[in-house]
Amino acid sequence: SYLGFASQLFFFLFLISAEYYLLTVMAHDRCVAICQPLHYGTLLGTRACVHMAAAAWGICLFIALLHTAKTFSVPLCQGNAVGQFFCEIPHILKLSCSHSDYLREVGLIVVGVSLTFGCFVFMVVSYVWIFRAMLRIPSQQGRHKAFSTCLPHLAVVSLFLSTGVFANLKPPSMSSPSLDLVVSVLYSVVPPAVNPLIYSLRNKELKDALRRLITG
């Protein structure tokens, strides 16, 4: 049904974009913590963190509502059967018979991609500042501590972006319903599922437990 498709698309867009924008906020958090540690409490207090998180969720809510409303206002002339497990925008647009509505939705996608690229550039610039600050730390122990602070975030960002880029930019010759399903699950389910594990690897007790499990 349209309602089921629309609900699935809304929550898919909302949760995926929320994951990405919160990772962007976390990159800023790491940058301030390492580059300006003495001012961290002033620059990123509780109120500032709440405001950034609320802004990220609010933007994601607006984006998801806008895309969902626009996508499902496009008239379909090739039926309403989507040959995918996930109800994604490109597969719905293939069923469209209105060229002008199709172009408007593609325009929204271009704006979304531009915002995504802007967040990526922001994260890259943040980590350039972080690595520059780390190189100025005199002690090896201090550099190791700073790097271990960033490592979980870098791992999550790398996993999220690599699977997402492959899912959306893979060659058409590699596209198949089964592969698209696996890749969609990979970038939409796996990164959020492993987040708690990756961020918990800094916990000494958890690392000791994993070491004992591996070594028997």
UniProtKB/TrEMBL annotation:
<comment type="function">
    <text>Odorant receptor.</text>
</comment>
<keyword id="KW-1133">Transmembrane helix</keyword>
<dbReference type="GO" id="GO:0004984">
    <property type="term" value="F:olfactory receptor activity"/>
</dbReference>
<dbReference type="GO" id="GO:0004930">
    <property type="term" value="F:G protein-coupled receptor activity"/>
</dbReference>
<feature type="transmembrane region" description="Helical">
    <location>
        <begin position="6"/>
        <end position="27"/>
    </location>
</feature>
<keyword id="KW-0472">Membrane</keyword>
<dbReference type="InterPro" id="IPR050516">
    <property type="entry name" value="Olfactory_GPCR"/>
</dbReference>
<feature type="transmembrane region" description="Helical">
    <location>
        <begin position="151"/>
        <end position="169"/>
    </location>
</feature>
<keyword id="KW-0552">Olfaction</keyword>
<protein>
    <submittedName>
        <fullName>Olfactory receptor 14J1</fullName>
    </submittedName>
</protein>
<keyword id="KW-0807">Transducer</keyword>
<keyword id="KW-0716">Sensory transduction</keyword>
<dbReference type="GO" id="GO:0005886">
    <property type="term" value="C:plasma membrane"/>
</dbReference>
<keyword id="KW-0297">G-protein coupled receptor</keyword>
<keyword id="KW-1003">Cell membrane</keyword>
<dbReference type="Pfam" id="PF13853">
    <property type="entry name" value="7tm_4"/>
</dbReference>
<feature type="transmembrane region" description="Helical">
    <location>
        <begin position="108"/>
        <end position="130"/>
    </location>
</feature>
<keyword id="KW-0675">Receptor</keyword>
<feature type="domain" description="G-protein coupled receptors family 1 profile">
    <location>
        <begin position="1"/>
        <end position="199"/>
    </location>
</feature>
<keyword id="KW-0812">Transmembrane</keyword>
<feature type="transmembrane region" description="Helical">
    <location>
        <begin position="181"/>
        <end position="201"/>
    </location>
</feature>
<dbReference type="InterPro" id="IPR017452">
    <property type="entry name" value="GPCR_Rhodpsn_7TM"/>
</dbReference>
<feature type="transmembrane region" description="Helical">
    <location>
        <begin position="48"/>
        <end position="66"/>
    </location>
</feature>
<dbReference type="InterPro" id="IPR000725">
    <property type="entry name" value="Olfact_rcpt"/>
</dbReference>
